[in-house]
Amino acid sequence: MGKVDFYILSDAGADEPLRVTCRLAEKAWRQGNRVRVQVADANSLHRLDDLMWTFKQESFLPHEVDGQTPESPEMDPAPVVLGTDTRYTGAPDVLINLAGSLPENADEISRIAEIVPADEDSKRAGRKRYRHYRERGFELDIHEV
After folding, report:
1. How far apart are CA 138 and CA 64, in angstroms?
2. How far apart are the first and last CA of the chain?
3. What is the pLDDT of residues 86-118, one digit of tens each?
4. 37-46: per-residue pLDDT in tens?
5. Is 61 helix (H, G, I), strand (E, B) or coil?
6. Of all residues in the chain, what percent are helix, strand and coil, respectively (each to 5)?
7. pTM for the whole thing?
8. DSSP per-residue string spanning 73-119
9. Domains of the chain with CATH codes
10. Backbone Cα Rg of the chain
11. For the chain, which has fewer Cβ within 10 Å, the N-terminal or C-terminal residue?
């Protein structure tokens, strides 16, 4: 089984989950991992896409939105892929989950980062996902951010 890290946010700012996601995605990418970021809806996807271009003054995070880049055999996929669809091909090395629901193919992924926003509904949903992973034998860790 893989490992799941829960990032429990203390800042209730609307963009804080997206900022934490950018930092985690950048770290995973720099370590040579293929990263998928799962978001709940098109609005979050658009906001995250924009933020990945600007969250650091000195650089951007190379990424693409799932389904928006034409597939070409000569092009390698971007190291970070953003998407809303829970069904996708090819398991990433790292999945960053902002969707608030369980990833369908969690058993195929070696590393999952669960982002848990500061509001009570998100924390309740995060505890439910934690129990799910624990029951399936994942290694779990919690980080207060």
Report:
1. 29
2. 25
3. 767 678 999 999 998 888 888 889 999 999 999
4. 999 999 999 9
5. coil
6. 30, 25, 45
7. 0.91
8. TTSPPPSEEEES-S--SS--SEEEE-SSS--TTGGG-SEEEEEE-SS
9. 3-68+76-144 (3.40.50.10110)
10. 15
11. N
